[in-house]
Amino acid sequence: MSTLSTSLPGGTWTLGDLTVTRFGYGAMQLAGPGVMGPPADHDGALAVLREVADLGITHIDTAGAYGPRVTNLLIREALHPYAESLHIVTKVGATRDEHGGWPPARRPEDLRRAVRENLETLGLDVLDLVNLRLGDAQGPRPGSLAEPFETLVELQRQGLIRHLGVSNATAEQVAEARTIAPIVCVQNMYNLAYRHDDELIDELAEEGIAYVPFFPLGGFSPLQSSALSTVAARLDATPMSVALAWLLQRSPNILLIPGTSSLTHLRENVAGAGLSLSDEELAELDKIGR
Q: Which residue among the candidates 66, 190, 194, 211 is catalytic per the annotation?
């Protein structure tokens, strides 16, 4: 583990040879409504990204499909040339249609094009970490990932990608990916109320592989739970803060990427994730998703 000094909650984690803060930032919400088009407040989006860097966050999650291309271009405008400590994680395997849908794009030519576009829009020669997005907008779907994943392995051999991960994947797909090439992270939906991956998280922790929950706060319909609200009120904290703190304490391999387009919310998220939950509070919260 690197000695990168950080006062951010949770400290650091290593993704392969990359040290990142466990508290990261997800850029999806910087795009326009429905993750389509430019932000209403362009300068405000740039200010959020610069504050992310100023806070010491070294893990930013994005995708060429956000906007599409919008969040990548904002990251480049706000932060390029990038600090050596900053690591940008992107994902490929889905595109956007004119209705705002997320159709799969996992043919070899789709993936090669997506990697090239990510390099171009982010202004990079090599991508630190690329996640292969599987399944669809409704969640993971069973089936082999061999062909698309092998395409990314080939691009990795060509020096265009440093590390690989999978997203929206079943436990079987995670296992299959690991028989083809090393992965450094799994990015799936998980939060206090949605606990389908509990067993997988524990297995990955033993293997030193990160687990990155998307929609850590419930996504488009925020987490609602009387137990969560009760604990939050007792701690004089927001329910969202408690949910983030719970994730950091749930397992050392969990990396957070909560998204926001607001400077205030960004700072609240960082502060909230630093709450220390007692064993009793953890046990109380643990019942929510069981």
A: 66
Residue with token string 């051999």: 157
In whole angstroms, give the CA distance from residue 226 to residue 9. Answer: 25
pTM for the complete prediction? 0.95
Helix (H, G, I), strand (E, B) or coil at 59: strand
Q: How far is 224 from 134, CA to CA, in rounded Å?
A: 27
Residue 255 near residue 20, CB atoms below 8 Å:
yes
Residue 138 φ then ψ, to 5°: -85, -10
The separation between the first and the last C-alpha atoms of the chain, rounded to the nearest angstrom, is 33
Cα–Cα nearest to 64, from 87, 94, 106: 94
pLDDT tens readout for residues 143-167: 999 999 999 999 999 999 999 999 9
Partnered with residue 60 across adjacent β-strands are 25, 88
Helix 70-79 with 108-122: angle, nearest 10 deg? 30
Q: Catalytic site residue 25?
A: no
**Count of H helices and E strands in the chain?**
10, 9
